[in-house]
Amino acid sequence: MTGIMIVTGASRGIGAAIARKAAVSGYAVAVNYHRSAAAAEAVVADILTAGGRAVALCADISRSEEAARLFAEVDRELGAPDVLVNNAGMIGAPTPIEAASAAHLADVFAANVLSMFFCCREATLRMSCRRGGNGGTIINMSSVAARHGGLPNEAHYAASKGAIDSLTLALAKELGPQGIRVNAVRPGLIDTAIHDAHGGRAAIDALAPGVPLGRAGTAEEVADSVMWLVSSAAAYVHGALVDVSGGR
To answer: Which spans are transmembrane here (predicted)?
Structure first.
């Protein structure tokens, strides 16, 4: 398994786990981050120490021009991408619907949804067989919150992930004929810092007994599913929404 992979939001958590596993599998990895430069450089250092190839690239991909710049930098530093993993996103502060504000919703949907549109656009420009590309694979990071509504006061998050599911299904129809496979991974309760938005460790421990498998998942378990989806073993998996949720 060789090629070039872009992982957005790869400085920590699920994104960092994907970047590390991709490097072990032979990918040159673009480790995208927005604010966490030191953490992103640490991921790159781990990859380089293990004999892999990686670069850390800063870009706020919720902005169209920043997403375009990220891909241009990847072109220069590594080459045209074979795989895009749209992992970047946020939960946003828990907010009841009666307190919903335009600013809060704009922030969440820009980070979670617009970023994926912009990055999928840039990936398609490079991957599409109709444009002279060699095809490729796109993985969108959704959430099981898209189907069960998420935690209390997180309608904004669940709705943004529902949009990602719809985007994935639409792009599977649009891009399949262009040689690009598109799938989504929907994590459940995963033991990462993203849960700091609603209680951190205490929240994870409180929710874990309600998972049929009786525990939270790990970032590495989600990364394993992503690596399967980008492999030849999943060559006929297209337009799928793959739950990694312990049955929740």
So the answer is: none
Query: Can you give the pTM of this predicted structure?
Result: 0.95
- Which residues are CB-neighbours of 208 under 8 A, at least 6 positions away? 189, 214, 215, 216
Distance CA 172, CA 51 (A): 34
Structure tokens at 113: 């949804």
* Six-digit token string for 155: 């309608």
Angle value at C-alpha 165, between 164 and 170, nearest 5 degrees: 95
Q: Strands 180-187, 3-7: parallel, antiparallel or unpaired by DSSP?
A: unpaired
- Looking at the 3D structure of the chain, how many domains does it have? 1
Digit-coded pLDDT (tens) for 37-50: 999 999 999 999 99
Tens digit of each residue's pLDDT (9 = 90 or more) over 147-194: 999 999 999 999 999 999 999 999 999 999 999 999 999 999 999 876
**Annotated catalytic residue, options 27, 33, 157, 236:** 157
Q: Catalogue the E-assigned strands of 71-130.
A: 83-86
CATH number at residue 100: 3.40.50.720
Output the pLDDT for position 1. 52
User: Is 157 known to be catalytic?
Assistant: yes
What residues make up the domain containing 188?
3-244
